[in-house]
Design a protein that fits this description.
This protein has one domain. It is built from 13 helices and no strands.
């Protein structure tokens, strides 16, 4: 069985990995409202390129300091570019494009499909066995996302369209990229796996973005950008991608892509909390959906055991 299909490290290690995965989702969710301030002034391709490029630049010196020069130079950079380009660069572009057509909550909600994608990948490629706990946990996680899509009683749900389709494409690309980042670099540390694939994706998307600029593609509205916008870009890149991705790859390496992806269904709640902190409305429906997702995560990993048949006493 692949290292991406079984929790590692015992109960304490599993709990720690879940907390790290939750932190990753919180940071990712916090980056979505920050991106919203940039989208009216920066085309999706250039915004995705700037985000990934800054993320790679942030992580590369940290990897060098932590693992040494030899680890950086001996890494398989060709494979990093291939995985990063197909998984993270393409996924980030689709997500940015989808968010520009919808909004941050829609992006977070469409990500609710990731557990289905992640578990399906493990069943098909890693031989994961579908247990009752895993199926119930997945259903509870999906139910949490469904509440936000359709709206709780008395609340409006979100609409679906082409932007949502782009967001789903992003989820598929990101899920595959996350699995490849772990399985293709078994000898690298979590920061090595994260950096080689993020830096590889940065190389790919920056080449495409430069080609777009040279050939007369859409340009940023430089006059409309100020220090607040550049601050939002730094936060969107460093916190919402570089650090979030590092924590995510760590969790995937210990929980597997299927179990880790259950956490992503809490992001609509995190986005709602952030919007609420800045004067937005509170949604009990989204709060309830987050509780369902949390319950599903605990059941899927056996942290809340399902009742089984009683053993006959001799």
């Amino acid at each position: 069985m692949s290292i991406t299909s079984a929790p590692q490290g015992g109960l304490s290690g599993t709990l720690a990995a879940n907390l790290i995965c939750s932190a990753s989702m919180l940071l990712w969710a916090a980056g979505l409202p920050a991106a919203q301030t940039l989208m009216p002034h920066v085309p999706p391709l250039l915004l995705a390129a700037a985000r990934i490029g800054l993320s790679g630049l942030f992580l590369l010196p940290i990897w060098w300091l932590m693992d040494g020069r030899q680890a950086v130079f001996s890494a398989h950079w060709g494979k990093g570019c291939l995985i990063g380009g197909a998984g993270f660069a393409f996924g980030a572009y689709l997500m940015t494009l989808g968010q520009s057509m919808t909004g941050p909550v829609t992006v977070a909600v469409i990500a609710a499909s990731m557990p289905v994608v992640g578990i399906a990948i493990e069943v098909l490629l890693d031989g994961r066995r579908l247990t009752a706990g895993l199926m119930l946990g997945g259903l509870l996680s999906l139910a949490g996302g469904f509440i936000v899509v359709t709206g709780a009683p008395g609340e409006a749900g979100i609409g679906l369209g082409l932007g949502a389709l782009f967001c789903f494409g992003s989820v598929l690309a990101f899920t595959l990229g996350s699995r490849w980042a772990v399985t293709s670099f078994p000898d690298l540390t979590s920061i090595g796996r994260t950096t080689v694939t993020l830096a590889g994706s940065a190389i790919c998307i920056l080449v495409v973005a430069l080609g777009s600029l040279v050939t007369g593609g859409a340009q940023p509205d430089w006059a409309a950008l100020g220090w607040i916008d550049f601050g939002a870009l730094i936060f969107y890149s460093v916190s919402g991608m570089a650090i979030s991705q590092l924590l995510w790859i760590y969790a995937v390496g210990r929980l597997g892509i299927g179990l880790s992806s259950l956490h992503i269904n809490t992001t609509p709640f995190y986005v709602m909390l952030i919007v609420f902190a800045f004067g937005g409305a509170w949604s009990w429906g989204q709060a309830g959906s987050a509780a369902l997702v949390g319950l599903g995560v605990l059941i899927a990993q056996g942290l809340i055991p399902l009742p089984g048949p009683r053993k006959k006493q001799a």
